[in-house]
Design brief:
Alpha-Beta Plaits; six-stranded mixed beta sheet; Rossmann fold; 3 domains; 23% helix; alpha+beta; seven-stranded mixed beta sheet; binds FE2/S2 (inorganic) cluster; Ubiquitin-like (UB roll)
Amino acid sequence: MPVVIVDGQEIEIGANERLNCIEAARRAGKEIPHYCWHPGLSVVASCRMCLVETGQRDAATGAITMVPKLVPGCQTPVRDGTVIVTESDTVKASRARVEEALLIDHPIDCPICDKAGECLLQDYHFQHGQPERRADLQPFHSRKRDVGPTVTLFVDRCIMCTRCVRFTREVTGTAELMVTSRGAKEEIDVFPGHPLANKLSGNVVDLCPVGALGDKDFLYQQRVWFLKREPNVCGGCSAGCSIHTEHNQDAVYRLKPRENPHVNTWWICDEGRYGWHHLHDQARMLEASRAISSPTHGRTAATTPATESIEWSEVVTKLRDDLKSAGRLAVAVSPMLTVEEAWMLCAVARSIDPEAFLALGFVPTRGADESFPGGFTIRAEKCPNRKGVEEVLALFSAGGRSWNDLVDHVSAGRADAAWVTAAYPTPWIDEAGAAAFSSLAQLVVQDLFDSPLMQLATWRLPAVGFAERSGTWVNVAHHAQSFRQAIRPPAGVWPEGRLFWNMLGRRGLYDVNAVRQQIATSSPSFRALAGELPSTGVDLRLHQIA
Ligand code: FES
């Protein structure tokens, strides 16, 4: 194996690995400071913050020959025998000078800058900068430039790393951003009449190492040190991008991409990034209710059954009784549910009616899959777990049944009761679509918001959003990722999993891990879920062969 020597420490790298000095040093636990380099973008080596000393160890004699100048670590590949020195006086002096040069023109407006607390310029100043400032503080102008619907540019804070420019050229292929002027007058700008309006635009805010690019949705909402972050999965489409949900006091403030080479690399789309506001929508369903009396046939939105609120502890028993006495049951298992929730729902349904008709719930789609030059794809299927729910249904011998099959089943009068799980963040069914369910003796609808179908329901149950549930989602490429609840649901709302857990007669608090273990041991499809999953998830297909 090739060996690289980092500050005297030998580390092995793969025979075919192509690493630069920054990446090799990380393997040795050494962080080389850098601004312009990003693993997902081309290398420009313009900021000079990553300068290190390098050399080569002779394989035969062991003698080391050093390069007589500093080299950019981001641009220098390593090979067997490469020597990297990251902590010499020369290297430290170089970093301090780069910091000093950047800060001469940088406004010291950290108290009002959104980036404070997670700013590389700030962090590197304390880690690598000079203790005293040799130039006078200049009055600053926090010039702002509206570069697009999602992003504001604070011109004077920019250190010209050009990560954002390269992103729009290399990843989105839209090239809205550019560098204007030259030398000390260089600035980032958009081309006239072409704002930064691509579907991945929010990523430039994450890429900006300082506070030059501000996310309009997050601007001045919260100091970052108050935020807690939970590894999570985006529920916006079937790509299932890895994200961090950043929250404080049960309120989400922003979503950030979480690096995952198997799914989304370093990016997420704007639709996913800003797709959390429904969690705090005032119109959400907040209490469980049950029809006091209702006509069993020909209900319409105009003859909506009168309901009264009911405690969740009563829902657990009375819902089962109502469905059992109604007769034949049909259940729509929403692709917004986790694998664990879907499995428990099917088990509950079969315990009520052993012949219950189980089908995949409504699968929302919009347009076609959209791929970008950098390899990122936004999926047309706007739900995160169709694959997972289909696998669960197959375990109950109900694979292949779709939402349309369920509607046909109900329309043909082959069911007396239906339980429709939904949890969709946007409207998904109209009155015509709901009409098929108007003649059922019992209709249970579990959703985030009111809908024409909810108006027909004899049982109206609130659902929870993506950040409020725990479990596993399986994306369009069979990649499974487990996650935990980031925030608590609104007061009075039980997550679906908690209801199903109680309806199965399980004791104690809902234990998602126990359910996952049970599924993994009972099904080859989910064998991979038996152990502790890596944070980047697993490909279920790789574990299905005994
Ligand atoms: Fe190497 Fe900027 S990170 S020169």
